[in-house]
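[Automated response] Your request has been received and processed.

Submitted sequence:
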Amino acid sequence: MSGLLQNAAAMAVVPLLTLIAGSGLAQTSPDPLAEPLTRDELKPTYFAIVECARRNQEPGCLAARQLADELMDRPFVTAFCKDTAFAVTQQAKTAEMNSFERKEELVRLARDTMDLCKGKEDPRPVYGELDENKTNDNKINVLDLLN
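Generated structure:
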């Protein structure tokens, strides 16, 4: 009887293992939301926020709120980016009077969106790390500091 139970247990586990192994193969295509944002991808959000700030009309403000909301849905953007996007969703609304302070705050949020939401570029190498043949008396060589 125990041999029969072992066979039944093995039959139940095989489909589960097949499902787990197959799920790893299904996720080989990269998720576009997991990719870092580029400046070109952030430009529509920037321009929509600036449009809302300058013209104070609902179509521009609605576009700014929707694009900022999409930024908050991305799983791999920084918390600073999400905080800025949330501030845009709260402040990108039409106002009775388009004050200078309102415009400046929205333009600041647009600039912060460009700065805080883009993917970080590769760091530039410090002089002396990769190129030992160049000498320049005005630059500090990192290797000289280690000696």
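Summary generated for your ticket: The radius of gyration is 26 Å. The helical segments are 2-26, 39-55, 58-73, 79-91, 100-117, 142-146.
If you did not submit this request, please reply to this message.
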